[in-house]
Specification:
By secondary structure, the protein is an alpha+beta fold. Helices cover 25% and strands 33% of the residues. The C terminus is likely disordered.
């Protein structure tokens, strides 16, 4: 199983140059959060919504900077052909899920924003640094999945499905 990521361009409004999942803000025409996620994935990296099986929603994640993210979890039997939107996406890459389950690959910093204390997770995969909300959501999701699979990393590694958005 691999996780799909994007690196945002330096010209987008928020989170310039950061690694994120495909996705973004809702438009008035979106009928629900799933429609938003599928539309954004198509706009950002060219994923045909028919190539994604939506598994469901994961817990909302509130960032220290005030954004609320509702992860929509989907999979595909294989990573489809991707066409990044050059205005929004500088790079698209995938990382094996097993990489994030190895405690040696996880780094944590204790931070504060005003009076609020939080942990900032970081992973470095090649030249990519995955951190902040993306790392925290991914960490929580994969640990939840590992518990559901009785903690068996072997089951996680043996699949070829891809998740993201």
């Amino acid at each position: 199983m691999h996780i799909l990521f994007t690196r945002r361009t330096a010209t987008v409004e928020h989170h310039k140059g950061q690694v994120s999942f495909p996705g973004g803000s809702s438009d008035e025409a979106d009928t629900n959060i799933v429609a938003t996620a599928l539309r954004e994935a198509r706009e950002e990296v060219g994923i045909d919504p028919r190539a994604v099986s939506v598994l469901g929603l994961f817990d909302d994640f509130q960032t220290p900077s005030g954004f609320c993210i509702t992860p929509v979890i989907g999979y595909s039997e294989r990573i489809p052909a991707l066409t990044p939107n050059e205005e929004e996406v500088e790079d698209v890459f995938s990382v094996p899920a097993a990489f994030f389950l190895n405690p040696g690959n996880e780094h944590v910093e204790h931070r504060s924003l005003g009076e609020k204390q939080y942990e900032l997770y970081r992973y470095r995969y090649g030249t990519h640094e995955i951190w902040g909300a993306t790392a925290a959501i991914l960490r929580t999701l994969l640990r939840t999945m590992a518990v559901e699979f009785n903690g068996s990393q072997h089951k996680m590694e043996s699949g070829s499905r891809n998740i993201g958005t």
